[in-house]
Amino acid sequence: MIQTETLILLEWARLCQHLGTFAATKLGTIAAQQLTIPTSRAASQRLLAQTTEIGLLSEQGELSFEGIVDINVALRRAAVQGLINGSELYDIATTLAGARRLRRTIDQSEDSPLLKELVDDLRTHPELEQEIYHCIDDRGDVTDRASEKLRLLRIQLKGSRDQIQQKLNNILQRHGNAIHQPVITQRSDRFVIQVKVTHKETIPGIVHDVSASGSTLYVEPNSVVGLGNQLRQQQRQEQREVEVILRALSDKVAEFLPDLEYLVQIVTAIDLALARYGYSNWLGANPPRFLGTDDPQQITLRQLRHPLLVWQQQHEAGPTVVPTDLVVQPHTRVVTITGPNTGGKTVTLKTLAIAALMAKVGLYVPAKEPVEIPWFGAILADIGDEQSLQQSLSTFSGHIRRIGRILAALPADRSSLVLLDEVGAGTDPAEGSALATALLQHLADRAYLTIATTHYGELKALKYQDQRFENASVEFDDVSLSPTYRLLWGIPGRSNALAIALRLGLDPTVIEAAQQQVGLTGGEVNEVIAGLEAQRREQETKAEAARQLLVQAEQFYAEVSQKAAELQAREQNLKIAQEQTIQAEVAAAKGEIAKVIRHLQRGSPTAQDAQRATAELERLAAERANPLPPPVGYQPKVGERIRISRLGQTAEVLTVADERGNLQVRLGLMSVSVSLTDVESLTGEKPKVPAKPPKVTKPAPIAEAPVKDAILIRTERNTIDVRGQRVDSAVIEVDRAMNAAHASGILWIIHGKGTGKLREGLHDFLASHGQVLKIELASNVDGGAGVTIAHLR
């Protein structure tokens, strides 16, 4: 009973009507207007998930309810073996087809598990649909192809009509002077012509009607009466055959009645989910997350708007909706809202209650993310006056009766939300205040959350006696003498009754006298509250300034990050282009060298041929010896500000980088040395670090023996690859290869660059080997520091 009263007080029916306008079918509209509130948290979560899934489908634009109509009346008639007419049968067929398309769309979706579960058991009976389409056309008429008997009857009917028309046309032509208008019409399903009353004897027949003026008779000539009787008999035969066909189809519908009723139920649920998403999307609402009754998290409803006020603003030119913030700490069980009348206290109560109801029925809540709210087992409210002259009830009596029903309806699991407007009002202030205090303390033990509006100062002090209580107030602008409709937390409000009375035109003399009385009783308290409100406004101004600075900093960070990413991408592209160019140059050089080797291998090379080949190779090396210029990297300049990345601080450059890549910077009051690898520009550019020259062990000079005139040509016989081997195994391989390469006087050793340990070990071995005259690294074209050339005795 009290929950129904609460829905009436909250104008829940209006919200349901608004929801119904977003349905795609009449079924969805009716379901929205008769919305059922779930009785379990799991059911509400399921509805919310369906709302989200249907939203994803509708955004893809593939969801269609075309052809689906309300067939409940026809199904109810079929349930009692009634006859379903042609239009209703055609609606059943289109609904079956529409439901099949809807199921196919949902089955093809990858993100709709709950909707798929809904349509899993849906049976659309295509054979019934096709039979209806075969017998009924889109106007609801039974077609000639429905039965052979019907087709023949309609042929006979057409023949009879044609005969009647022909006879009547002949009469019109023969007796034109007796005819009022030369047209054939019908009266009482009989074909008649219009005969002047003065010539009624000219065309004898049955008079079926007379014109309003009495000058015209509607006569069925005797010559066509027999044909008319025959036509009526044929029409009755046709009607009986049509009824036979409709009866067969109605029986077929009754046979599949449970499946059809389930189909209507599922289609309605899907359309209702679509309406919930459409309405939520229109409101700019966000999906709520339900908190558990023992969840230590706070209730969070920021920028919360009342949906009915939003509708009024958008469709009825209502005032701009002022959002409110409701953030309730986990330990809070009672919130007392104080402040002036017309300040928005009652609207705040209704907004919270209707938001809780919206979440329960699967609607999103018109608040800023995140939306976190408990699942309230019961939402109970006492809002407004309840007076009855017939029952001799005062305002106070009406409130007490309703509060009694609220206390009786509280669930045992303490999951209820209780809303009390002007608690304890309407009686002696002292007794009313005491009653309100006791009532709120009682509710603190038995309800999840109670929010009460009041003017009693004693209730404001409960916060300082019990941590489960919290104060809030509606803001009042002392300058404009009008409410701002903003909710302030932690500060009790002032009634501002005198300011409001002055704005409403009360005599200033009376206001001044009242202000003197307030100064004697409670003026100091109001001054303290006014000071707290001023401090809050100052803090809000500073918080807004800080928020704007944070937004600017985030924008600057995003711009810097984007520029850094662009620079890194540009550097990577440049490296790739350089690598591709070098590879092309190397490939071309190898091709030229291969030509020289093939020329030497075609005959017995002489010393002159070898000299010419060497000269040719040197020419090729000179041509390919122009490497691409190294990429120009960022170089810190003296006096420039840079960022030391590992410290996250900026510093001033004192000296340019030396050959080891170190530079002096001023960091605060200190001068320190840092490496180029640890710094970057303020825009994120990394400096170019000079490459360290490879460490090459200087071979022992052997000057006593002349060096052969070796030919620096690499072949398979004078080349060995020891990359990846350990030093000791590589030494064995090199020693063996020197004997095989002795005739050519040179050995190419490919060891790779790596860490350099293999190269150093081989150089130590070659430097002490008696067969080696000298060693050197190959040119960049032939492998650089990754290849050693050993000249042999």
What does it look like?
- β11 (416-420), α15 and β12 (449-453) form a beta-alpha-beta unit.
- The termini are far apart.
- The strands form five sheets. The chain has a six-stranded mixed β-sheet with strand order 10-11-12-8-13-14, sandwiched between helices. Strands 18-17-16-15-19 form a five-stranded antiparallel β-sheet, with no helix packed on it. The protein has a four-stranded antiparallel β-sheet with strand order 1-2-4-3.
- The protein is α/β, with parallel strands linked by helices and 793 residues long.
- 48% of the residues lie in helices and 17% in strands.
- The protein is built from 22 helices and 23 strands.
Task: Provide key terms for this protein.
22 helices; single chain; 17% strand; 23 strands; flat; 793 residues; 5-stranded antiparallel β-sheet; alpha/beta; 6-stranded mixed β-sheet
Layout of secondary structure:
Layout: H1 2-9, H2 12-20, H3 26-33, H4 41-59, H5 72-79, H6 86-108, H7 113-119, H8 126-135, H9 148-174, E1 179-187, E2 190-196, E3 205-210, E4 216-221, H10 222-255, H11 257-283, E5 288-291, E6 299-304, H12 307-315, E7 324-328, E8 334-338, H13 345-360, E9 368-374, E10 378-382, H14 395-409, E11 416-420, H15 429-446, E12 449-453, H16 457-460, E13 469-477, E14 482-489, H17 497-503, H18 508-521, H19 523-601, H20 607-623, E15 641-644, E16 649-653, E17 662-667, E18 670-675, E19 679-681, E20 719-721, H21 727-740, E21 746-750, H22 757-767, E22 772-777, E23 787-792
Parallel strand pairs: 5-9, 8-12, 8-13, 10-11, 11-12, 20-21
Antiparallel strand pairs: 1-2, 2-4, 3-4, 6-7, 6-9, 13-14, 15-16, 15-19, 16-17, 17-18, 21-23, 22-23
Helix pairs in contact: 2-3, 3-11, 4-11, 5-11, 6-8, 8-10, 9-10, 17-18, 19-20, 21-22
